Amino acid sequence: MTSRMTHGAGSVPERRYRTSGWLTFAGTLSLVVGAFNIIDGLVALFRDNYYLVGENRILVFDYTAWGWIWLILGIVQIAVGAGILSGKLWARAVGVFFAVVAAIGHLAFLQAFPLWSVLTIAMCVLLIYALTAPPAGSTGR
Fold this sequence. Notes:
2 strands, two-stranded antiparallel ribbon, membrane, mainly alpha
């Protein structure tokens, strides 16, 4: 019997990461929340009369300003979701921050479209938990 020898196989330690289903879930949920925010933004930009509020103002801004806010926030959340799914640590921290920002924004938007806002706030809270619950050093792969 002959044994095959590989040169250098033992010299480089293999890095093992703990995988976490929560991070895979968080990345996917970030993509969904980002898509919801993009839809909110596009609707606010192109169909002002879609929302329940009679005036063209929600709390502070008009629908056009909210449209741009949701559109930009949604694009960032989709990028963060892709970062989470690829195992980037920075994406976890940024994901928590933007989930909090989106939840607060949907509180302000609650008067305009209550059901959609409550659903998105619930998903943001679940996203925050999914990003903070996994053990340190784990990835979503």
